[in-house]
């Protein structure tokens, strides 16, 4: 099963009703848009994003050139498709990480505990090492949970990427500094810092992450959010972005059977690019985010 199955099915029902016929009236288009609106809301897409999407699509779809054309239904479907691509971040090339600059370049990983942050850190490390042929070091800054440090070390081993040796008793900022200087001395190109996660958003966690950011000047600050948590994930991204100036998002558990609303709302609500999707627990379960591909998957 697929996260977007229910939405896809609903939309294809709407499309069937507007294509199996010759002419379309403005009323037909509005009826279709009403159904699309309900389908998006049922998929847990944020209301303001749905409103904006529907009004943009309507503006293009009710014009004479569309409804008087030879195949108006097809044209409406194309407009919906383009609107969806835009909602997801636009036509451009899939998002890439920005790794330019004097090495070692830091990437900061943030997110709530359980979002998949540590797993994603290792996945991204492997990807950069393999695809960009860069020397990557990972370091866990989770001083409160020794198990989390151990977990990153194990995941990094699976990824074939070295992790910073664990030294007990250091603060997160001290570990971040040690990671950067070890990377400098040992010629690493990229250092991925896995910050501590908490179960709830709190000031202490935010403050610590902000301090690490000002210390290491990361090129990327990525928020990892669990797509299965729907609008909570969107709210989390908003809150983190207010404090941390995120550069991008990673949505995990896209292989789960959520409703898809987080993936469809994130970009619109936060203005931030979705850079990757987590697609399994496995170390290779990471896809570069591609708006066109995802729109295609949803519209079938
Ligand atoms: P953290 O607490 O945020 O560091 O989360 P972890 O990296 O420990 O991940 C929590 C759980 O989610 C682990 O069991 C991971 O294997 C799992 N996980 C992470 N990303 C994904 C994903 O994209 N899909 C699935 N199915 N599971 C994932």
From TrEMBL:
What top-level class of enzyme does the UniProt entry assign? hydrolase
Q: What is known of its domains?
A: Composed of three domains: the N-terminal N domain, which is responsible for interactions with the ribosome, the central G domain, which binds GTP, and the C-terminal M domain, which binds the RNA and the signal sequence of the RNC.
Q: Which residues of the full protein are shown?
A: 15 to 314 of 523
Q: Does the keyword Nucleotide-binding apply?
A: yes
Gene source species: Glycocaulis alkaliphilus
The entry's cellular-component GO terms read: plasma membrane; signal recognition particle
**What catalytic activity is recorded?**
GTP + H2O = GDP + phosphate + H(+)
Keyword Cell inner membrane among UniProt keywords: no
SRP54-type proteins GTP-binding domain: which residues? 273-286
Q: Which GO terms describe its biological process?
A: SRP-dependent cotranslational protein targeting to membrane
Q: Supply the EC number(s).
A: 3.6.5.4
Annotated family? Belongs to the GTP-binding SRP family. SRP54 subfamily.
Q: How does it sit in the membrane?
A: Peripheral membrane protein
This chain belongs to the protein called Signal recognition particle protein
Q: Where does GTP bind?
A: 111-118, 194-198, 252-255
Give the UniProt keywords, A-Z: Cytoplasm, GTP-binding, Hydrolase, Nucleotide-binding, Ribonucleoprotein, RNA-binding, Signal recognition particle
Gene Ontology terms, MF aspect = 7S RNA binding; GTP binding; GTPase activity
* Localization in the cell: Cell inner membrane; Cytoplasm
Function description: Involved in targeting and insertion of nascent membrane proteins into the cytoplasmic membrane. Binds to the hydrophobic signal sequence of the ribosome-nascent chain (RNC) as it emerges from the ribosomes. The SRP-RNC complex is then targeted to the cytoplasmic membrane where it interacts with the SRP receptor FtsY. Interaction with FtsY leads to the transfer of the RNC complex to the Sec translocase for insertion into the membrane, the hydrolysis of GTP by both Ffh and FtsY, and the dissociation of the SRP-FtsY complex into the individual components.
Note the subunit structure.
Part of the signal recognition particle protein translocation system, which is composed of SRP and FtsY. SRP is a ribonucleoprotein composed of Ffh and a 4.5S RNA molecule.
């Amino acid at each position: 099963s697929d996260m977007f199955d229910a939405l896809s099915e609903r939309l294809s029902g709407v499309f069937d009703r507007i294509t199996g016929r010759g002419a379309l009236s403005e009323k037909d288009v509005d009826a279709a848009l009403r159904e699309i609106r309900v389908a998006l809301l049922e998929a847990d897409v944020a209301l303001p994003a749905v409103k904006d999407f529907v009004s943009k699509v309507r503006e293009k779809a009710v014009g004479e050139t569309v409804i008087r054309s030879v195949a108006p239904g097809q044209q409406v479907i194309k407009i919906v498709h383009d609107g969806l691509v835009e909602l997801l971040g636009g036509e451009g090339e899939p998002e890439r990480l920005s790794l330019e600059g004097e090495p070692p370049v830091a990437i900061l990983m943030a997110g709530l505990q359980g979002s998949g942050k540590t797993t994603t850190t290792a996945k991204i490390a492997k990807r950069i090492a393999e695809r960009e042929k860069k020397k990557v070091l990972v370091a866990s800054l989770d001083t409160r949970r020794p198990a989390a440090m151990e977990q990153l070390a194990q995941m990094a081993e699976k990824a074939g990427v070295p992790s910073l040796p664990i030294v007990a008793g250091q603060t997160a900022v001290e570990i971040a500094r040690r990671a950067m200087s070890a990377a400098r001395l040992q010629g690493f190109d990229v250092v991925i810092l896995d910050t501590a996660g908490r179960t709830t958003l709190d000031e202490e966690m935010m403050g610590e992450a902000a301090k690490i950011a000002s210390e290491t000047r990361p090129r990327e600050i990525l928020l990892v959010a669990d797509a299965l948590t729907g609008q909570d994930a969107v709210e989390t991204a908003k809150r983190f972005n207010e404090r941390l100036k995120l550069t991008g998002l990673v949505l995990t558990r896209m292989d789960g059977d959520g409703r898809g609303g987080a993936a469809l709302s994130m970009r619109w609500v936060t203005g931030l690019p979705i850079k990757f999707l987590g697609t399994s627990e496995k170390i290779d379960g990471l896809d570069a985010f591609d708006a066109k591909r995802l729109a295609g998957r949803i519209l079938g």
